[in-house]
Amino acid sequence: MIKVNDCNFSIEQICESGQCFRLKKIEENKYSMIALGRYLELEQDQNEITFHCTPEEYVQVWEHYFDLNTDYKRFIESVTEEDEYLYRAVQFGKGIRILEQDVWEIIISFIISQQNNIKRIRKCIELLCEKYGEKKFINKTEIYYDFPTIQALAGATEEELRDCNLGYRSRYILNTAKSILNKEVDINALKKMDYKDAKVELIKLSGVGEKVADCICLFSLHHLDAFPIDTHIKKVLNQYYPKGFPFETFLGYTGIIQQYIFYFDLKNGNV
């Protein structure tokens, strides 16, 4: 196992921040994560986070995945008390990190997220993984399911996908899987593109609009200036920033600021 001390890392806040859907609480202060074909358990005691994995796996996979080499303190300290709302939002959610997730998984996850809530998104993804993902084992006894491959979803039917409670999104997922399989959109090439070009390319996919493309850019391609605008963000911008949000103040990390706002509004509503 590996122990990390970080005052700006909260497994609970990351889990509930709406950017990942296969990180879940299994007992008090203990969580499990399925990602990148792996299973991980994490525990937190105040600022100490325990990763139940080998040192090699931590360095090769999870250190990068959880963005642990980035100093989030400087982002937090860049928000002053003069902006009362944003200061409260950042202080409230200062344990959030922007994860560097698998682009294929995030494309499908955020197509599913449309007109949906976090609890239901998690359930849809769980059903999709159980039906189309590869079965794997923890300690030769416990089962978990990998995220379905492009080929697995491209080979499904719309009716079969609807059995995973995906509704109208089934057609988007099927069309998107086929587009990527046929190289109409090369998701490996996305990783080499800048934010603007990646977003244009992503919007070619069925069911991917501006907001979903921004989520993919932020949560998998790690373009930290991507600023997804959903109903939570739109409400905050209208209420607290009617003359415009100060994007120029946070150039290079506006997407991180967006996550603090989203999480604060999600948890506190109109506070």
Distance between the termini: 40 Å
Oligomer: single chain
Q: Looking across the biggest beta sheet, what order are the strands in?
A: 1-5-4-3-2
Q: Quick one: CATH class of the largest domain?
A: Mainly Alpha
Which tags fit this structure?
TATA-Binding Protein; alpha+beta; Endonuclease III, domain 1; five-stranded antiparallel sheet; two-stranded antiparallel sheet; 14 helices; 271 residues
Overall description:
Strand 3 and strand 4 form a beta hairpin. This protein has two domains: 2-92, TATA-Binding Protein (2-Layer Sandwich); 103-219, Orthogonal Bundle (Endonuclease III, domain 1), CATH 1.10.340.30. It contains 14 helices and seven strands. It has helices at residues 11-15, 55-65, 73-77, 84-92, 103-112, 118-132, 150-154, 158-162, 169-181, 187-190, 195-202, 210-219, 231-240, 254-268; strands spanning 2-5, 23-27, 30-35, 38-45, 48-51, 135-138, 142-145. By secondary structure, it is of the alpha+beta class. Helices cover 46% and strands 13% of the residues. The model has no long low-confidence stretch (mean pLDDT 95).
